[in-house]
Design goal:
about 325 residues, 2 domains, five-stranded mixed sheet, three-stranded antiparallel sheet, about 40% helix, Transcriptional regulator, AbiEi antitoxin, Type IV TA system
């Protein structure tokens, strides 16, 4: 394999449906339909309706999901005005089935520049931002990248735990990496809130199998010798030294996938478990074991660079005395 894309590609969203029957007062006026005529046709029982100010639905039935999203964009001025669909609606458009489907009873979150003076109305909630994302065009709609959509959804849900399934599904589909969601959440200032932290811990657990698969790919494609996979290291008849994702006994080199939740500045001191894990790693290093920590982000960014770093550690380890006193056992 010659590229460095993740092994789990994002699922391709469906093609855009036929053009929705949604337009604006201004567009109709440009076609010769007066505002008075439009308003008359939008009266109760008429052939049209006006679900949002200035937005016209050219049929009397409730809008379907695609029409609702187009109506929200037209109300906010569309992508030309910096409007981007985010939150659960953006996830649904990108193929995250557990995010549900937009309909007339659900809220649609739309990011708009912080200088806009529009207000939220009906099912359209405006989220003002000074950090507009670069939108993806999916099914004809500008949507926030999955990581930003997840962070916006988490930041505005009363029960963040309800987003656990969409979080895990987005990672499993390859739409985003856990670290990207965490980086977005850091901007919201809610990462340390217990419900959000619990949802993110589930996200990290969902992303670990993807990272393990990419680590396996790194070893194979990087022409590295086969390690002992997923093992525990012990002292003979002694204490447990820690679990590692890959270990090369001949060179005393261990690789650990670092999927821990990053700590924000000013956060609490490490937990007892974290302190114990750090102590064990220091013991391993003191025994001559080279411990290489690799984050999923680093693997996704360039598995070749990580393979080169591990290869250099293996070559350096081959010149040192071995650590025959470390016992390797399956974990």
């Amino acid at each position: 394999m010659t590229h460095e894309a993740p092994l789990t590609p994002p699922r391709r969203p469906g093609a855009a449906p036929a053009a929705p029957r949604v337009t604006t007062l201004l567009a109709l006026r440009a076609e010769g339909v007066s505002a008075a005529t439009t308003r008359r046709r939008c009266r109760p029982g008429g052939p049209w309706q006006m679900p949002l100010p200035g937005v016209v639905l050219l049929h009397p039935e409730p809008p379907d999901g695609h029409e609702l999203l187009h109506a929200a964009l037209l109300y906010t001025g569309g992508p030309e005005a910096g409007a981007v669909i985010t939150g659960l609606a953006a996830l649904a458009v990108q193929g995250v089935t557990s995010a549900g489907t937009p309909d007339a009873t659900r809220r649609v979150d739309v990011l708009v520049p912080h200088t806009r003076r529009l207000r939220s109305l009906g099912r359209v909630r405006l989220l003002r931002t000074a950090r507009p994302p670069r939108p993806r065009r999916v099914a004809g709609l500008p949507v926030a990248p999955a990581a930003r959509a997840l962070a916006d959804a988490l930041a505005h849900l009363e029960e963040p735990a309800a987003l656990r399934r969409p979080l895990e599904e987005a990672v499993r589909l390859g739409l985003c990496e856990p670290c990207a969601v965490i980086a977005e959440l850091e901007q919201t200032g809610r990462l340390d809130e217990p419900p959000v932290a619990r949802a993110v811990e589930g996200l990290l657990a969902a992303g670990r199998p993807v990272a393990e698969e990419l680590l396996f790919h790194m070893v194979r494609q990087g022409a590295l010798p086969d390690p002992c996979w997923n093992v525990g290291l012990w002292l003979p008849d002694g204490p447990f030294l820690g679990d590692v994702d890959a270990y090369w006994p001949e060179s005393s080199v261990a690789v650990r996938l670092d999927t821990r939740l990053p700590r924000q500045r000013g956060s609490a001191a490490p937990t007892p478990d974290e302190a114990e894990a750090t102590r064990r790693e220091q013991t391993l290093r003191g025994l001559g074991v080279t411990v290489v920590r690799i984050t999923p982000r680093a693997l996704h960014a360039s598995w070749r660079r990580q393979a080169n770093a591990v290869g250099a550690a293996l070559r350096a380890g081959a010149t040192r005395p071995g650590t025959d006193w470390v016992v390797v056992l399956p974990r």
